[in-house]
Amino acid sequence: MRWLLVLVVFLASLGAVSCGSSPHQNSSNAQIRVMTASPDLGNVDVQVNGQTIATNLGWRSVFPMPTTSYANAQAGSLHVQEFPTGVGSPALVDARFSTSPNNFYTILTAGEQSSGALATIMFSDDHIAPTPGQLRLRFVNAASTVGTIDVYFTAGPNDPVPVVPSLPAFSYKSVSSYILFSGSSTELCANPAGVIPSAMGRCLLSVQLQFLAHPRIV
Question: Which strand (E) or helix (H) includes residue 8?
Fold first, then answer.
C-alpha cells in the first residue's frame, strides 16, 4: 500500500502545464499560483504575505487543473504560509522566496510531513505558446520516498525503451524544463536511476498521458 501511495503522489505531481497566451498581468506585481502534492499534510489555507489566496486546498483537490488560479502578489520578498483549514496557527508550511515584477510563479508543497521530508518549491512559468497541435509540459518529482529516477517517453506502450532517458537522474524536488509533445498521447516510464527497464510497461511507474485536442491555458 505504501508503494502504491508513493506512485500516486508522483503521478499527481507530474503536471505543471503551460500552453496558450499569458493571463492578464499587472506589471508591478508577480502572479502566484499554488498546488499541494503532499498526501498527508491535510487540507490547508494558503497565505502569501499575510493575505489568504487559497482555502481548503488539498491533495489533488483542484483536479483536473494542476494548480489554483493565479493571484496578485507584491513583487520582492514573498512569505508563504500554509495552515490547517480553519486554523490560524501553527503554520504547517513557512517558506520565503524572492519574486520579480511581471513574472508568473508556481508554488508546490511536496513530500510527506510524517517523514520530515516536506518541502516547498517555487518555479517560474513562461507561458510561451506551443505551435498548433503541440503541448508543452513540465515535470516535478514530488515523491520524497521513491528515490532518484530516470524518466522515459515514447509515443506508445509497445515502443522500444529509448537508449537515453529524457529526464536522467531525476531526484526529489527536481523540476524539468518545458518539454514539447505532439499527438494525443504519450507513454511515460519512470524507473530507478540507472536501471534500464525491459519494456515501457515494466517500470516502477508506467502510465499513458492522454492529451486533450484543445487544452485550456493553465
Answer: helix 2-12
